[in-house]
Write a structure and sequence with these properties.
The chain is built from one helix and 19 strands. It has 228 residues and is mainly β. InterPro entries: FN3_sf, Ig-like_fold.
Length: 228
Amino acid sequence: MTRTILLLCAILTLSLGCRKNREPKPPGQVQLVFPDKNSECTTGQSLGATTSRVTFRWQEADNVQTYELRVTNLNTGSTQTISTAATSANLPIEKGTPFSWQVRSRNNQVQESVSSEVWSFYNSGSTTSFVPFPADIISPRMSQRVFKDINNETILSWSASDLDNDIDSFEVYLSTENPPEDLKATLGANTLQLKVSVASNTVYYWSVITTDAQGNATSSGVYTFKIL
């Protein structure tokens, strides 16, 4: 009788262990390959005076059934989306225009999807003056919870890139309203952080406008954080 009970327990343990191993796993995060971050893409196949076909490539990620490529025109904000099981995809996009792109990993067995980093690039065209890439927010990141220092201040920081290497200034906006309309400072091209006064238990919105020597300007988009 004891041997029978032990045998049943062993079978039940093996059954539960196998069932646990069969639980679906979430998809992995994609590593982007091409077009390179903050670069000029010159390899597109010309489709006419205004459009070229660009091949986007990324590395294979674990537990992924489909990849969703999202390419956004930074001038208009419009986004093209394509789903594929491959690790590359072609899209026709405008020449002489800045874009951002990312890839979402999906698995039909789980609801969760995972997004890659967002890379920006400039699709080659006839223009001789490049618009600066949107500032890349470093800190505080989106929805980050932040402690103020003993002076009731926190530091906003970002990075920036321009193919012409002619960034002229940054305008930093911060307020408790969305979108932020309070201009806190206009800074030179070599200044990539700003210390600002903040209050406890308050949600803030902020953005950075990058302007180059030709007067071209781009926005980082609005980020939010909370002071604890």
